[in-house]
Specification:
50s Ribosomal Protein L17, Chain: A; single chain; alpha+beta; 140 residues
Length: 140
């Protein structure tokens, strides 16, 4: 698997990715650079996929990657896996911000997609389409 080096050695990079993955799971959003966000996104999606599998092997893999943080793993397996049970991927989204002062690195917000808001939008769209069809039928 190809990955970005993120200007650090292997141990530091792995620790950074695990820490940022934990923060995304706990806080459901973080502000970071675009390059780091694109790399962290892969691991957040992988952890949620492990949670959806729900077996012991997946739990142990998640614990190993997340430095044995049981609070984060429990949230993944108990809350997030149920929230995204009907979704096959794409659990995160990246929203671009301005450049950071000092080095002009592009800053972004990496956050988990909110399924309830998406469902509400779909229902609103369906209701709106029904109303438009009824209005068209009434005018005929």
């Amino acid at each position: 698997m190809a990955y970005r080096k993120l200007a650090s050695d292997n141990k530091h990079r792995r620790s950074l990715l695990a820490t940022q993955t934990k923060q995304v799971v706990l806080n459901e959003s973080i502000t970071t650079t675009e390059t780091r966000a694109k790399e962290v996104r892969k691991f957040v999606d992988k952890m949620i996929t492990y949670g959806k599998k729900g077996d012991l092997v997946s739990r142990r893999k998640a614990l190993a990657f997340l430095h044995n943080d049981k609070e984060v793993v429990n949230k993944i397996f108990n809350e997030l896996s149920k929230r995204y049970e009907n979704r096959n991927g794409g659990y995160t989204q990246i929203l671009k911000l301005d450049e950071r002062r000092g080095d002009n690195a592009l800053m972004v917000i990496l956050r988990l997609v909110d399924e309830t808001k998406l469902e509400e939008k779909k229902q609103d769209k369906k209701a709106k389409n029904k109303e438009e069809k009824e209005i068209k039928e009434d005018t005929k």
